[in-house]
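Materials and Methods. Structural model of Major facilitator superfamily protein. The 394-residue sequence of Major facilitator superfamily protein from Mesorhizobium plurifarium was retrieved and submitted for structure prediction as follows.
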Amino acid sequence: MTASQAAQAENGDWLVGNPTGLQLASALWVGSVGLLILGLQPVLLGALYSEGHVTGDELALVATAEMIAIAIGSAIVAMLLPARNMRWKSTVLLVLLALANVWTAYAGSPNALIGARTLAGLAEGGLVAVATELIARSRRAERIGGYFVTLQTLAQCALALILALYAVPRAGSAGGFIALGVVCLLSLAVAWTVPDDYADLPKEEQFANVATVPAITALLSIFCYFMFFGAVWAFLEPIGAQFGIDGRTVGLMVSASLAAQVIGAMTATIFEARIDYRFAITIIGIVAAISSVLLASGPGFSVFWAVALVMGFILLFIVPYQIRLAITADETRTAALLVPAAQLFGLAIGPVAASLLIEGDNFRLVPEFAAATALASVLLLGVFVLVARRRGQP
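The predicted structure was written out as tokens:
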């Protein structure tokens, strides 16, 4: 047995390092705290709007600034900082996020809110990298990624319910953000069970590894898919209103969609090894495009409900396969570390790009734009497959 074979046997499911189950769970939880806002934005930002703290346009700026900051924060920590002293880094980031949430609760102007959520986004992105850095070191990165999205979505569902039923009705948006800050502080205990130093991945010339046609097309495919979801989700309520569906019903659809996301993530975790990633991404992209076209066609009540549930299911079902796509594109796994950034940029840019197509109260072009981005993600996957075959990749 060679030295490399011996190391592989010793590490088992890990390319480098050998974290315990508790350490893995802790890292996934810390990363999940960084993404809690994705499920809580409808509750917290909706409360800011209803209380008159921001206008509709200002609300969009607040949401977009935070999404872009999360993407930047995750990319900076994953690409530029060594995976050392992760317990201290997790602690500092959690405290910073707690302070940003308190700042948000007491911010007195839209500009202050944008500043607070930008700071929060940078900290949240760093926390996401705590999880994704460890996931990238696993031989079963797709499955661990499935566990990650399942955990974060379950946490979002539970906290969204608590905020909607108790914190926000009693203390308004400020109470919701304070509660989110408390979650950050409580998570400090978990931060000290994260692996302190992650073993190094081969990162020589890491930027060169990403600046290749396979890696770029893979990340662009992921970006376009999440543009589809971001565009539709941001305008789901006005799209529903255009076709006679009231806001309260759309709110129920959003809650049900979160539950569908949990089911989608759990299903992907079970079946990820049995379905080829190219087949999965292609089928899901086509389903996403069809769903968007249905939204643009003036759907009835039942069809609208069905589309909301389907979109929720496929959103997280696709994530393990996107991780496999990124790993196939770059075996050093540098591209895999940028998957969260590609997803979050897509979620942030999708609504902004779609908003340029809105004409008065006519939102029909928004789902049409979403259908185009979903098909673009499939087309980019096709480009990736052609290039990979020429290079002899599987």
